[in-house]
Amino acid sequence: MKHTMSILCDDTPGVMTRISGLFSRRGFNIESLTVGHTELPGKSRFTIVVEGNDHILEQVRKQLQKLIHVIKVWDLDLERTIEREHALVKIEVGDQERASILQLITALQARIVSSNGNIWVFEITGDTAAVDSAINLLSQFQIVESIRTGKIALEEGSESGRVRS
Amino acid sequence: MKKGKSVGAKSLVKSLEKAGTEVLFGYPGGANLPIYEALSRSEIRCILSRHEQGAAHMADGYARATGKTGVCMATSGPGATNLVTGIATAYMDSSPMVALTGQVSRGMIGNDAFQEVDITGITIPITKHNYLVQKASQIAPTIEEAFYLASTGRRGPVLVDIPKDVQTEEFASQQERRRSLEGYNPTMKGHPGQIKRAVSMIREASRPVIIAGGGVFLADGFDALAQFVETTGMPVVHTLMGKSAFDNRHPLNLGLFGYHGRKIANTAVTKADLVIAIGTRFGDRSTGPLSAFAPEARIIHIDIDPAEIGKNVPAYLPIVGDITNILPRLTELCSSAGTASDHQKSWLDNLQSNVSTPPAAGDIRTSGILRSAAEVFQDPIVVTDVGRHQIAAAQYFPVSSGRTFITSGGLGTMGFGLPAAIGAAIGRPDKEVVLITGDGSFLMNIQELVTARETGVHIAVLVMNDSRLGMIQQLQDYFYEGRFDVSKFETDIHFERIAEDFGCSGIRVDSSDGLMKALNEASGNDGVTVIDCAVGEEDHVYPMVTGSNLLELVEGGAQ
Fold first, then answer.
1. Which of A7, A11, A23, A62 is the mutation pick for testing B, counting most B CBs within 10 A?
2. Of B106, B318, B456, B554, which one has the greatest count of Cβ atoms within 10 A?
3. Is A158 among the domain residues?
4. Residue B405 and residue B423: Cα distance in Å, rounded?
5. SS3 string of B526-548?
6. Are A110 and A142 in the same domain?
7. Which residues of B are catalytic?
């Protein structure tokens, strides 16, 4: 099953290696990993999406919790989680395509963030499914390059997630 | 140097002293010489090993024998990588250790400088935590933290890597800043509700058994366990790491269980309706195939590490905390709840029918040698290496409870024995230390005989010399059609001669007549005595589980 883990940790060198090592040694491929600063000074939050056996991932969660720099680990309940991804898609736009692409952009609520001759860069934000389908629709055009951030996620409610043991 | 100023290396030595370090096991090199220079003006005793791996095992053996944190040190590069096996050994057996390494100067890190390795990167998976110190002012708080982490909660090795220019850097003393460890709060006290639930489970059980693991040893929970057993009257089996958790001669101690476990112990676990696992991680050498492990039992799992709960075996009732906190409370509640039920008494009687008569000792056989040694040495610390002799030591050398049996259980490190014995002897000069080793393991760190000689420790070394890798042959015999090409040594090594060349005493024993004399001599000698026991081709070590559960075992009997 797919899991989204949220990890609050000290913002310090090496913490990423320690965290990712616990997945890789078990042969898990991290689907996406995002990290950034939080409202707490000196603390970072990781959002990690990984697919694997529930029992083994529970073990990984406990091992993550044991890392000295890790303060708290949540296995997020996707039913009550807000998730977002961000993508940038660079497209070579043919002269005849302009009208249809602008129409699609409006429908997708995407934005044009750069246009350099016929090379345009679009910005898309949404949950994973929305970004998937946007990219899928854009792929009828000539995609030159694209990048997505991976998922960031927070649970709804007053506290950002509960520890599920 | 100006007033209020300090230097990295000096600050390091001061921090070590403050942490209570009495002995440091190490080996010098270009990148740790400033530290050795500062150590020369300290009371800390520096033991010079002959290989960094030896230094690490010595620190580990010292830690296991004393309960204090062992300290070892190496230089950068190869010195640091030579520590790795020793650190991993300590990690697998949760031994408290602080490993110090020199590192190339900060400006050269990452440039493939001479004798540079990324030792913090290398040791992430085998340390509880590690540090690369970037400023001299951070040395003192880092060392304090390293000792704290190594010696609390589930213990383990912590590595501190210190670049050479940090060791020589001057800094103002008031720059030393403590940090908080927000993410580290080991649970020490067991949950009262869980303890109460455990008591009713114990009362309801008719076939209970206690599994004593290495956690009892690490927590010094010997008295706590003994009182718990005495109060409840429940039988005890132990893992290899838990051999000295409970007096081996106590009638309620059924002995080693698991892959090489005794039939009575394996029967107790397999037929039990309640397993109380104390400080064990249910390693695969003790559980056997998990699907057939204790199929009828509900399991109470007591451990300090929440990550061990449910890792290998599902726990019906987990209690996370320190054994010395949990067991006395459990004992108290059990004693007010009454003594063992009649069911439990008949369970014990039934188990006794599984006692197999220990095979008689032949001439010069490992089992016989160990039984004789157990008579000669009074309440010693037994240290083993890894292999057939290790299992034989667990089976045939009874020890009293305490820090009396030291072995590399988790990692199974051949070559652990001699340096660990040296560390143990240095830490506990009041005890006799007996090293039981094999010719394969002994050769792996034999250079430390020099260290043993120079430190003046008293160790009796019993080498079970059969010119082969016995455990390997046993596996080849059972599972690989007996192809012994790589497990038979061509050269008959006389370890007594090697011992003498290293300045130790050496005796070769090839008949039972000479054995008692040699053992008494080794016990009487002040220094190191190596008894090279020419045991010839030996039988396999039994019991050994060969089937799909702990009861499908070969008992053997020829030894």
1. A62
2. B318
3. no
4. 13
5. CCEEEEEEECCCCCCCCCEECCC
6. yes
7. 52, 114-115, 164, 471
Is A128 a domain residue? Answer: yes
Are A113 and A145 in a shared domain? yes
Contact (CB<8Å) B121/A70: no
**Domain tally for chain A?**
2
Q: Which domain holds residue A30?
A: 2-76
**Closest by Cβ to B311, choosing from A21, A25, A59:** A59
| Domains assigned to chain B | 5-175 (3.40.50.970), 192-352 (3.40.50.1220), 366-554 (3.40.50.970)
CB contact at 8 A, B522 and B546: no
Nearest in space to B453 (alpha carbons), one of B427, B494, B421 = B421
Contacts of B184 in chain A (CB under 8 A): 68
Residues A71 and A14 occupy one common structural domain: yes
**Contact residues of B toward A, CB < 8 A:** 120-121, 124-125, 128-129, 132, 149, 181-184, 305-307, 310-311
Query: Which chain B residue shows the shortest CA-CA distance from A12?
Result: B131
Per-residue pLDDT of chain B (559 residues; tens, 9 = 90+): 667 789 999 999 999 999 999 999 999 999 999 999 999 999 999 999 999 999 999 999 999 999 999 999 999 999 999 999 999 999 999 999 999 999 999 999 999 999 999 999 999 999 999 999 999 999 999 999 999 999 999 999 999 999 999 999 999 987 777 777 888 999 999 999 999 999 999 999 999 999 999 999 999 999 999 999 999 999 999 999 999 999 999 999 999 999 999 999 999 999 999 999 999 999 999 999 999 999 999 999 999 999 999 999 999 999 999 999 999 999 999 988 766 677 788 899 889 888 876 655 556 789 999 999 999 999 999 999 999 999 999 999 999 999 999 999 999 999 999 999 999 999 999 999 999 999 999 999 999 999 999 999 999 999 999 999 999 999 898 889 888 888 999 999 999 999 999 999 999 999 888 999 999 999 999 999 999 999 988 878 888 898 889 999 888 753 3
Determine the residue type at B342.
D
Which of B132, B182, B307 lies closest to A66 in CB terms?
B307
CA atoms of B244 and B405, how far apart (whole Å)? 6
Chain B nearest-CA distance from A154, in A, is 20
Same domain, A32 and A56: yes
Which residues of chain A have a CB within 8 Å of the CB of B128?
68
d(CA B142, CA B12): 9
A14 contacts in chain B (CB < 8 Å)? 120, 124, 132
Q: Do B120 and A14 touch (CB under 8 A)?
A: yes
The answer to the question of residue A116 being in a domain is yes
Q: If we measure between CA atoms, which residue out of B343, B335, B280 comes closest to residue B313?
A: B280
Cβ contact B515:B507 at 8 Å: no
Residues A6 and A47 in one domain: yes
CATH number of the domain enclosing A72: 3.30.70.260
DSSP secondary structure string for all residues of B211-277: EE-HHHHHTT-HHHHHHHHHHH---EEE-STTGGGS-TTSTTEEEE-STT--HHHHHHHHH-SEEEE
Q: Could you say which of A9, A62, A68 has the minimum Cβ distance to residue B149?
A: A68
CB distance A68–B307 less than 8 Å? no
The residue among A24, A47, A76 that closes a domain is A76
Residues A12 and A72 occupy one common structural domain: yes
The answer to whether the complex's ipTM is over 0.90 is no
Query: To probe the interface with A, which of B134, B182, B185, B191 has the most A CB atoms within 10 Å?
Result: B182
Last residue of a domain, one of A45, A76, A107: A76
Tell me, yes or no, whether A71 and A104 share the same domain.
Answer: no
Q: A93 and A117: one domain? A: yes
| Record: contact B124-A25, CB cut-off 8 A | no
